[in-house]
Amino acid sequence: MQTLLRGGRVVDPGRGFDGVADVLVTDAEVSAVAPGLDAPDGAAVVDVGGLVVGPGFLDLHSHVHSIAGQRLQAMDGVTTALDLEAGLMPIERAYAEAAAAGRPLHYGFSASWGSARAQAHAGITPDARIESGLAVLGNPQWQRSSSPRELATWLSLLDGELAAGALGIGILMGYAPASDPAEFRAVARLAAKAGVPTYTHVRELVEVDPDTPADGSAEIADLAAETGATMHHCHVNSTSGRHVDRVLATLDRSRQAGSRVTVEAYPYGAGSTAVGAAFISPERLRLKGLGPSSVVMLETGERVADQGRLRQLRADDPGAPCLLEFLDERTERDRGLLQRALAFPDAVVASDAMPVYWPDGRHESTEWPLPPGGSTHPRTAGTFAKTLRLMVRETGTWTWLEAFRRCSYLPSRILDDVAPAAAAKGHLAAGADADLVVLDPATITDTATYADPTRPSNGIKHLYVGGVPVVADGVLRTDALPGRPLRGERR
């Protein structure tokens, strides 16, 4: 199967190329990129004049494990959606179930630090499902520090998951913020020895909790320097809030000193998690300068009225999804904080996309457009389009070359050591994977809102995953499930 994309503005962050050219795709690979290519006999020819052609976006931080959610991400330009912050366990089951159900996008998972601890501490057997993982988040047993025996048990579980193909270790430290820092050091040493990255939701900052065992952002910088591990700081915008400038300065000093610290951000002032998470407690909210009214229950739309109601919700169903408003996007100051996080040198764009929930309890739908009433965070549908609107179209902070570098090239390079197959992703030259996005530079924008979060982005004209069109002429193809696994190979 061959496809010729003719006359587009080709952007290849791997070569630093930005110019008009044709792109020839043969099966799942880019076979040629040059002006004036002849169409081989039988090739499909697609006129992409006036459009931007680049490597599809690689999302390091997606909790979407469904056809429905991945279709929203496809309409946002994503070709590979990986769950690396939380991960799933057991990893073999996660890959097997994704393959059996089919996926529009490529997929992959990290080894789940939280699930391994829950098994070692409380005997909770993980089942590789995101909804089960959310339910575990409010369980205090796994949040405490480990005994020596428990530590050895869950480190062994993580090591086994890495051997089975996990893409590194996902660490939800923010959900166990009082746990012993020595345990995190042990994880970093394991990662360094195995040659895999860690992906961390950091614990509290000292500005928020002076009694924290370690400043969350400084901790990963220090451990990267001490152990030599590659350590990725997840959603720096949401964990840093109004302290983001100090955090970015801390991380920059670490990188300048030679530590392998990478950073991600998304362009929203509200996060999404389980209501039982440690940092959603009334006490933790108060330390952040927030209150119960900053919490909105995702499935019902209820804005929590007071501490009593919040405590009740946390006790009744700690896994219930909610939104947490940590910045006010209506103010210029807070919008500036979000944009500075995105603009931080070499920061990558990652969505933290969440599952879609329907009132009848479904987490999946193969209908398209999606059935009405679905609840999720708008970042599931709009992270990349919103970032391009803000950073390229409206402010000119990034060129298109820089945008593809942040959304495609740099995320792929974070995976190079753990997944050799990632070398063919994130760039657009002969030999690259045929994971391509074709977008309209004049109209690319998000449409999802907090009130209507499942509205697909506008401006994605074509999307190819492994050479297969998932979006064609702006229309999603419901028969396309070409996603394939991206797996780790430890040294």
From TrEMBL:
Gene3D superfamilies: D-aminoacylase. Domain 3, Metal-dependent hydrolases, Urease, subunit C, domain 1
Cited SUPFAM superfamilies: Composite domain of metallo-dependent hydrolases, Metallo-dependent hydrolases
Protein name: Amidohydrolase family protein
Matches recorded under NCBIfam families: PRK09061.1 (NF006560)
Organism: Amycolatopsis ultiminotia
InterPro entries cross-referenced by the UniProt entry: D-aminoacylase_insert_dom_sf (IPR023100), Metal-dep_hydrolase_composite (IPR011059), Metal_Hydrolase (IPR032466), Metallo-dep_Hydrolases_sf (IPR050378)
